[in-house]
Design a protein that fits this description.
This protein is mainly β and 438 residues long. 2% of the residues lie in helices and 52% in strands. It is elongated and about 90 Å long. It is found in: Secreted.
């Protein structure tokens, strides 16, 4: 009906319209949809109506949510006369004129984690690093007796096989790029732990030294950091006879610098700087997490205290919001905790149910701060930090079996979350921004 000028379809109990309802009505000047049961309108519904002069939407129960945001924009720019139409919901907009709403009133930007790539193997740790301007990820694969090194393909936007370091019972493969050299610390449950270096002459990893097997018997976690320009790494050891140990880099390699925490079955270690003071926080299955503070004169860490009275802490990770410092403490049996640093000690802020949790990893993507709380018995819960409430709120569930780590990896314009699994394939999620008004 290309010559139709007037269309009145009011009082017809119309509940929905398709986007193409008015396609071809190029001569339409007057349209009435009044007194129907419309709660929303498809985006750009009136775009084909080039010369529409009068539109009546009164008497409908329009929900002023993100699906109607386009209508507010259209009303601001059109010359069409539209008698006042009011919002019926949600509560904060009920009774308001749609024309009076500001675009900023609509909170339509949300995010999602979607599966981007499935890596067909089990793994227990993932460590990204950049070397010679390329992005890599090192994953510990005890089932495959190796540390797998994958390289990011910027064209295909995928992780691809690059190299493998033999490791019969690898629990952690920690890359360290220091002084233009690439090292990988390979921690194994059996057969000792080693340090490899990338040899640019032959383009392969070469084993350069052993790690003292008397101190490191059952390693769990490795953290690397710099203090006053010097490189260190620390290995958390979970055996009764071993000790969590600190190593320092010199010209020829990494050498034992300090035995930190013996006989305590340590599960994880985290490097934190509070008030400009370097600290290590070591979690243990036999006692509450212990805080060590760096002594600049002695160039060693000294015990400073404990984090509350929490046993069975499997993992300790920190995050910072503005000037405030927080810890995430995952527990396998009890509830997991979020604590905040208040001058001289950490104070409990939030308790999260987490039976079977081995990993609790905070991470930030742009202005959004998330936390992934894994479980051996249920879904992984992704939480979103709410600054006003000073706590995490549930955001999304991820189907990851027995996760052992979550690692955020920014890869150019793609934001990735790696989820190593002890029992299934390793999953790579992509962080996507969704505009609900489109």
């Amino acid at each position: 009906l290309s010559h139709l000028q007037y269309l009145f379809i009011e009082n017809n109990d119309i509940q929905a319209l398709s986007k193409a309802t008015f396609r071809g009505l190029k001569s339409l000047t007057h349209l009435s949809l009044a007194n129907n049961n419309l709660q929303t309108l498809p985006r750009d519904l009136f775009k084909p109506l080039d010369i529409l002069s009068d539109l009546d939407l009164r008497g409908n129960t329009l929900a002023c949510d993100c699906k109607i945001k386009w209508l507010v924009e259209w009303m601001e720019s059109t010359n069409t006369t539209v008698p006042a139409v009011f919002c019926s919901s949600p509560g904060q907009f009920e009774g308001q004129r749609i024309r009076d709403l500001a675009l900023g009133d609509f909170q339509c930007i949300t995010t999602d984690f979607v599966v981007h790539q499935v890596l067909p193997f089990q793994s227990v740790s993932a460590e990204p690093y950049t070397y010679a301007s390329d992005l890599y990820v090192a994953l510990a694969q005890p089932g495959a007796s190796s540390c797998a090194v994958l390289k990011w393909d910027y064209v295909e936007r995928k992780l691809r096989d690059f190299d493998r370091i033999p490791a019969h019972s690898a629990v952690h493969c920690k890359p360290i790029v220091a002084q233009s050299q690439l090292y990988v610390v390979v921690a194994q449950l059996f057969g000792g732990s080693y340090i490899y270096r990338w040899d640019t002459a032959v383009d392969k990893f070469i084993k350069i030294q052993d790690i003292d097997s008397q101190k490191t018997r059952k390693p769990n976690d490795i953290e690397a950091f710099q203090i006053e320009g010097e490189w260190y790494f620390v290995i958390a050891d979970s055996s009764k006879a071993g000790s969590t140990s600190l190593y320092r880099l010199n010209q020829n390699g990494f050498y034992s610098h300090q035995a930190l925490h013996a006989w305590h079955r340590d599960t994880d270690v985290e490097y934190v700087e509070n008030d400009g003071k370097p600290r290590l926080i070591i979690s243990s299955s036999s006692q509450a997490p212990v805080i060590y503070q760096w002594n600049r004169a002695q160039k060693q860490f000294a015990p400073q205290g404990e984090v509350g009275e929490m046993l069975d802490v499997q993992m300790v990770k920190h995050f910072r919001v503005k000037r405030e410092q927080f810890l995430c403490l995952s527990r396998y049996i009890g509830d997991s905790k979020v604590v905040r640093w208040e001058g001289q000690r950490f104070v409990e802020l939030q308790t999260l149910p987490s039976r079977g949790s081995m990993v609790m990893q905070p991470f930030a993507v742009g202005q959004r701060r998330y936390m992934a709380l894994g479980s051996d018995f249920s879904f992984t819960h992704v939480y979103l930090w709410e600054e006003e409430k000073q706590k995490f709120v549930k955001f999304q569930e991820l189907a990851v079996q027995a996760p052992r780590a979550f690692r955020y990896v920014p890869a150019a314009d793609v934001q990735l979350l790696l989820a190593p699994s002890f029992k299934a394939n390793t999953l790579v999620y992509r962080h996507v921004v969704v505009d609900l008004s489109l």
